[in-house]
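Sequence in, structure out.
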Amino acid sequence: MQKQRLEGKVALITGAASGIGEETVRLFAENGALIVVADVQDELGEQVVASIGSEKVIYHHCDVRDEKQVEETIKFTLEKYGHIDILFSNAGILGTLSSILEFDLDEFDNIISTNVRGAAATIKHAARAMVAKKIQGSIICTTSVAACIGGAGPHAYTISKHGLVGLVKAACSELGAYGIRVNSISPYGVATPLSCKGLNLEPHEVEDYSCSEANLKGVVLKAKHIAEAALFLASDEAIYISGHNLVVDGGFSVVNRSKY
């Protein structure tokens, strides 16, 4: 029987009702974790929980833009399971593609509030819980290949994901004293509901485009691959990895893609 890599560990996953978050819920559950599925998509979140069919996976509404909701979600998790070992701060929004010359600052504020401020709130309150319980936990944030280079996503999204990498490094610098690891994952283009809606494309169209632009050929990047990266960082296999941005992009962000 395969070893369950998160046996008995408590995980809070935001943005967990679909896409990368949903895949991570399923993979963490398979590996023995107790999970709080947090999202604003209540119906989808409840469907994820019902489809897994385990008392070890429960849903809780949380809009990460509202710090009070974040704090209440942490409280809910502690009341249910007693402590938190893993935070996967995955909630995020993409925004629309537009010229920097037509930059929508209202949309920018909402993206920053969700992608950066929301992550900061979840890290703040999850880390408080870990410190109080003396848990040497793992905090993981979903960033993007757009956190590594420009031109790989909408401008506001790119700015937010660069900021999120900075947040991870800042949190790592302090929380290491408590034995808490803080890392991020930067995926290349994945056909999630978020990306399909933002790009107004069908899943196969997103995958076709990503594959055409990819450096690493012969592999179609799926949400499950990002979930596997999160499982590694959450597990004791990554016990001495902190402050790291794990880029899952097949080399896209580090090679010269000019045509010769």
